[in-house]
Structures are given as structure tokens and as C-alpha cells.
Amino acid sequence: MTTTLRERIADELLRARSRTTALAEAVDEADLVKQHSPIMSPLVWDFAHVGNQEELWLVRDVGGREPVRRDIDELYDAFQNPRHERPQLPLLNPTEARGYLRTVREKVLDLLERVPLAGRRLVDEGFAFGMIVQHEQQHDETMLATHQLRVGEPVLTAPPPPPAAVEVAGEVVVPGGRFTMGTSTEPWALDNERPAHQVELAPFAIDAAPVSNGQYAQFIADGGYDDPRWWSESGWAHRQRAGLVAPMHWVPDGDGWAYTRFGVTSPVAPDEPVVHVCFHEAQAYARWAGRRLPTEAEWEKAARFDPATGRSRRYPWGDVDPTPAHANLGQRHLRPAPVGAYPAGASPLGVHQLIGDVWEWVDTDFTGYPGFSPFPYREYSEVFFGSDYKVLRGGSFGTDPAACRGTFRNWDYPIRRQVFSGFRCARTLDPAERAALG
Ligand SMILES: [Fe+2]
């Protein structure tokens, strides 16, 4: 029996909600309403905000139904309320929030049976439902990041990721020429991933795997945090101001480093991709290593370009949706997998772990592609365009497959490291290498 679009939407809504619920119910009421970091919302804000967005877009707009709680719209408007102010708002308490989410969801499942899924761009191929599924999953990753910032007894557990299956090291040469970046066909792709467009790139080399903790520890041991040569001017100023000495959550441990993850401290695993570094740290490491960060276009070409056909794939491994064999996604394992753990997920050129494990900083400001048009509202992406934000690509262990594609774009301030963020390096080929490529 084939799954209909409506069944798939219902499944995705349910899957997102079970994760949201698990993340919220893992802590007690006091922890739910508490702010664990000034850059994060109280978990109970994320929780009710997810329901409010679902109400705004699906109950009111798509369904044309009466508001459930028009009076709370302002409280859960992310633009009107900076994160540090959210704990002071008269938010729904956890019990009220649970009830609100239930009511909204009942209405959505009812209207999902009735509304046409064609004839209007907002509902074509279920777009608005897909947008809301992705929104909830994105907040689930944010809630997971809040869990990582929370201090207290560990409350989250998950089985470890698979061990390394192959040795992955060194760099891969990506041929020059045009490739298709972005998408015009992926039904649930967001406005900033659109439209598909041709990009011409010179050949370049990119790391076959994300930079590991072991590699990053060498940068620290070599005095990388104390040498302004490796840092940009703004990066060095931030490093000084913030007193950075190692990735977030790293603590000295004898001769080495330990790392606290979801309340459990253990020695840093050398073969795992480094995580919780900001853009400036990634850029400094790359310079120290005699390399640079890839541009966003380079990252996407390395991830999607199939040299045999010349076309761009949905994912590095092909066009099929991610399975547990392809990538470490979906909070299945609450840590990055070691380098070499996902040979089935490699790109045709042999670049590994582009999807899942850690978000990867790229050296590109967040802007619209040529032909960009805001949809369904300017506040989704367009208001963030400009030089304030750097792009992150590929998703992390905390990202759900529904909110992760070869074209998916994330963005944050270059000083942020509460994200599950790592990176890989790239390199411009010298003339002799380019000549050798023909
Ligand atoms: Fe949101």
C-alpha cells in the first residue's frame, strides 16, 4: 500500500510531536520554566511557540478556522520578544501549554482530512504542513541545545553511534565548472533554498571528513588560541573579549581535555568531529592548518554534484531519504559519530559525513540566491539576510531528516557555539595542481 501525502504529513506531525514532548517531559516543571542561558528561551516558551506557529499557519490560514488563543500571539512572536526577555513574559504554564498544543493539534488533524493540498502555493504538495513539521523539528534541535546548556543531573540518554567502519583522511579534489545549487523542485524546501541556479566554481580541495577533536586539540596545544595571526580582526577581538581557550563545554583534564555532554563528563574522543565551535574558531583553525573554510557553494558542490551525470543529487548518497545507514540525524545518538562511521553516506567524490553529525560553518554570509522571493513571509529568511550571519550546512546529530537536505541552509551569528556546530576545511588549488587536472 502506498502512503498518501496526507498520511505522510500526519506521520511527520506525530513524529515531531513525540520528540518535542520527550524533550519537554525529560525535565521537571521548575526546569521547564527556567532560563538555562540568556541566549536560549525557557523550554516552555519553545514548547508553546511550536503550538502557536501551528495555530497561525495551519488552523487559521490553511484551515480558515477561528483562533484558539489569539491573546497569546504576541507572547510567542520571536521578533517581538528577544530570548533574554522571554522568562519575564506571562507565558502559559506547562499544564496550559500542554493543553494548548493538544487542542491545536486536534484541529490540525481534523482539517488535514479536509483541506485541498493543491491549488494554492501555500498548500501545494502539503507545503504549509511541511513548513510546520520542519519548524517544530528545528525547535526540537534548539530545545536539545538548551538541554546541553542546562546544569543538573543527566536526563537524556541514547545508544552510542556506530563505530568507524572505514578510514577517512585527507582531502578530495572537486573538479571545476558549473553545477546546480539550490532547488526549485523539492516540495518542502524553504524559500532560502530556492531557486535552483547555476554556479561556476574553480576546482578546489575539501576535507574528506569534518575536523576531529584530535586535530582540533593540536591547534590548541600549538597555542592557536593565543596567536592573533590565525584569527580575523573581528575573530581575535571576540576571542579576547569572550576569553575563548577551547570549544564550549571542554574542560582541562590532566594533560588533555574532557567534555561535558548532556550532564555527563568524559574524556574528549579524538576521532569524533569537533562540536560547539564558533565561526571564528573554525576560521582560525583553518588558517593555522594552512587552509580555509569552504564557501557555501563549494560545500554544496562537494555534497551534491555527481560527476558521472553532471546533476546535483538531493543528498550526497543519492536521491533517497536518509536512513540510519546514511547519516547520524534525528537525535538517535546524542553525539557525533566518529569519522568514518557512515561510508554509505559518502558523496560520489568520496566526501564523508556532510549530512548529520555536526553543522558545518562555511565562509559565506546568509543572503538570498539569485531570483530569491520571500515565501510565505519575509520574516522566515529575508530579514536575516546580510553580513551579520554566517551559513551552516548539513545538519547535526540533533537535526531531524525532515529539516535536513543537501540544499538546507542554517544561519547564526559568527560568535555562536551553542549550536551543534563544527566544520571542515578546504583549499584553493595552486596553478600546477590545476594544470595537472587538465
Ligand atoms: Fe520559531
Automatic annotation (TrEMBL):
<dbReference type="InterPro" id="IPR016187">
    <property type="entry name" value="CTDL_fold"/>
</dbReference>
<dbReference type="InterPro" id="IPR034660">
    <property type="entry name" value="DinB/YfiT-like"/>
</dbReference>
<dbReference type="GO" id="GO:0005506">
    <property type="term" value="F:iron ion binding"/>
</dbReference>
<dbReference type="InterPro" id="IPR042095">
    <property type="entry name" value="SUMF_sf"/>
</dbReference>
<dbReference type="InterPro" id="IPR017806">
    <property type="entry name" value="EgtB"/>
</dbReference>
<comment type="pathway">
    <text>Amino-acid biosynthesis; ergothioneine biosynthesis.</text>
</comment>
<dbReference type="InterPro" id="IPR051043">
    <property type="entry name" value="Sulfatase_Mod_Factor_Kinase"/>
</dbReference>
<dbReference type="InterPro" id="IPR032890">
    <property type="entry name" value="EgtB_Actinobacteria"/>
</dbReference>
<dbReference type="GO" id="GO:0044875">
    <property type="term" value="F:gamma-glutamyl hercynylcysteine sulfoxide synthase activity"/>
</dbReference>
<keyword id="KW-0560">Oxidoreductase</keyword>
<feature type="binding site">
    <location>
        <position position="135"/>
    </location>
    <ligand>
        <name>Fe cation</name>
    </ligand>
</feature>
<feature type="binding site">
    <location>
        <position position="139"/>
    </location>
    <ligand>
        <name>Fe cation</name>
    </ligand>
</feature>
<feature type="domain" description="Sulfatase-modifying factor enzyme-like">
    <location>
        <begin position="168"/>
        <end position="427"/>
    </location>
</feature>
<feature type="binding site">
    <location>
        <position position="49"/>
    </location>
    <ligand>
        <name>Fe cation</name>
    </ligand>
</feature>
<keyword id="KW-0503">Monooxygenase</keyword>
<feature type="domain" description="DinB-like">
    <location>
        <begin position="13"/>
        <end position="143"/>
    </location>
</feature>
<feature type="binding site">
    <location>
        <position position="416"/>
    </location>
    <ligand>
        <name>gamma-L-glutamyl-L-cysteine</name>
    </ligand>
</feature>
<dbReference type="InterPro" id="IPR024775">
    <property type="entry name" value="DinB-like"/>
</dbReference>
<comment type="similarity">
    <text>Belongs to the EgtB family.</text>
</comment>
<comment type="function">
    <text>Catalyzes the oxidative sulfurization of hercynine (N-alpha,N-alpha,N-alpha-trimethyl-L-histidine) into hercynyl-gamma-L-glutamyl-L-cysteine sulfoxide, a step in the biosynthesis pathway of ergothioneine.</text>
</comment>
<keyword id="KW-0408">Iron</keyword>
<dbReference type="Pfam" id="PF03781">
    <property type="entry name" value="FGE-sulfatase"/>
</dbReference>
<keyword id="KW-0479">Metal-binding</keyword>
<protein>
    <recommendedName>
        <fullName>Hercynine oxygenase</fullName>
        <ecNumber>1.14.99.50</ecNumber>
    </recommendedName>
</protein>
<feature type="binding site">
    <location>
        <begin position="83"/>
        <end position="86"/>
    </location>
    <ligand>
        <name>gamma-L-glutamyl-L-cysteine</name>
    </ligand>
</feature>
<feature type="binding site">
    <location>
        <position position="412"/>
    </location>
    <ligand>
        <name>gamma-L-glutamyl-L-cysteine</name>
    </ligand>
</feature>
<dbReference type="InterPro" id="IPR005532">
    <property type="entry name" value="SUMF_dom"/>
</dbReference>
<dbReference type="Pfam" id="PF12867">
    <property type="entry name" value="DinB_2"/>
</dbReference>
